[in-house]
Every structure is written in structure tokens, then in C-alpha cells.
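Q: What residues go here?
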């Protein structure tokens, strides 16, 4: 897809689809947040990158969206509203606070739309969940995202959700480290920056 976008290069380190979706804004809590989902096309790029759309589905949706640009724009706006609700819910939980009712209500509205598209299919004698249709519903990438948020909320992993300790970062992740003391979204990113800053401050303090 487009080479002018970076949505397809974002780290998927949240440990859960819905948190990776929340992490499509970088430096969220800083004065200069960076948005990676600037339009519906970015949403498609990220969804293929995250593995919730096949590349064929993403291409099909791209041409569908060209025929229905207003609908695509409305779905992009819906995706951002959902993402922000997911961020607020898990950011508050990570800080030990209950989510806002409005955010849960938004999640539940999206959940009822998504679950209406869930099917049981038979495949080689086994049964499995499958999302309905192939690639005509422009909002189909939101279904697994919203389901992932609901699954995370009701699972034990909810208590392991953390927000990166680096100032301004705002990325969320599930802390699966054995001692439950992971502080940074990525040691090579925020962890190193924090270490470098401490080093710099120590040096400055000495001189
Ligand atoms: Zn971070």
C-alpha cells in the first residue's frame, strides 16, 4: 500500500490487539502527539500490518472505499473514537481507576455491532469463529479490535495492563514479564531514552 505512511511500520508490542490499536498515536501524553491513522487508507494499512485484514481484503476495501468515500470517512472517525475510548479505559485501569461510563457505553455500542457479524463455521470437521462476509463492510477491521478490548477487560490480563512510564509516551502494553515490573513500552525505545536521560542528569549534576 502507500509508502508515504508509517502506519504499516508501527511496533506491535502491546501484547493485545486492542492495545496495539490504542498505540497508533505516539507521544500521546506529550505536547506533540503523533497520529498514525490520518485517514481510512491508513486504517487499512495498519489493519493489514496487524494481521486483522488479509492483503486481499485490504485491497478490496480500498476500492470499495473509493466508491463510498463519505462512508469511509465516517468509519475512520468511528475508529478514532473507539481507539480513544480504548486508550482511556485501559489507561485508567493501569492507574488503578475505574473507566468512565461513557467510554464503556461506546465500547458496548461497537461491541453489539461487531458481534452481530460473528459466525460459527464448519471447517474440516471442526467449528470456528469467523467474521461475516469478505470485504464489502468498510468497518470490518473494527470488529476484532472491539472484541479484543472486551476479551481483555473480562480476562485476568486486565490487571497486567500498564502504561509506559516514559514521560509523554502513553503507549499501553500487557506486562507478561515474570516479576511484573516492566516499565517501558520498549527497552530499545523509551527504556533507552530514560536511561540516557538519567545518565545525562547524573553527569550534569556532577559538573
Ligand atoms: Zn514508551
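A:
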Amino acid at each position: 500500500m502507500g509508502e508515504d505512511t508509517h502506519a504499516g511500520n508501527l511496533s506491535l508490542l502491546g501484547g493485545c490487539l486492542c492495545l496495539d490499536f490504542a498505540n497508533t498515536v505516539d507521544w500521546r501524553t506529550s505536547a506533540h502527539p503523533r497520529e498514525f491513522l490520518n485517514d481510512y487508507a491508513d486504517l487499512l494499512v495498519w489493519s493489514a500490518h496487524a494481521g486483522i485484514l488479509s492483503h486481499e481484503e485490504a485491497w478490496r476495501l480500498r476500492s470499495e472505499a473509493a466508491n463510498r468515500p463519505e462512508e469511509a470517512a465516517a468509519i475512520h472517525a468511528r475508529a478514532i473514537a473507539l481507539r480513544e475510548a480504548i486508550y482511556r479505559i485501559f489507561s485508567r485501569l493501569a492507574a488503578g481507576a475505574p473507566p468512565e461510563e461513557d467510554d464503556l457505553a461506546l465500547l458496548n455500542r461497537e461491541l453489539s455491532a461487531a458481534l452481530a457479524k460473528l459466525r460459527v463455521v464448519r471447517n474440516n470437521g471442526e467449528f470456528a469463529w469467523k467474521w461475516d462476509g469478505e470485504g464489502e463492510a468498510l468497518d470490518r477491521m473494527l470488529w476484532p479490535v472491539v472484541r479484543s478490548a472486551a476479551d481483555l477487560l473480562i480476562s485476568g490480563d486486565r490487571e497486567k495492563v500498564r502504561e509506559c512510564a516514559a514521560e509523554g509516551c502513553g503507549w499501553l502494553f500487557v506486562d507478561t514479564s515474570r516479576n511484573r515490573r516492566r516499565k517501558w513500552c520498549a527497552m530499545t525505545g523509551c527504556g533507552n531514552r530514560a536511561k540516557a536521560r538519567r545518565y545525562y542528569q547524573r553527569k550534569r549534576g556532577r559538573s
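A: Context that may help when evaluating the design: The mean pLDDT is 91. The chain has one domain: 7-206.
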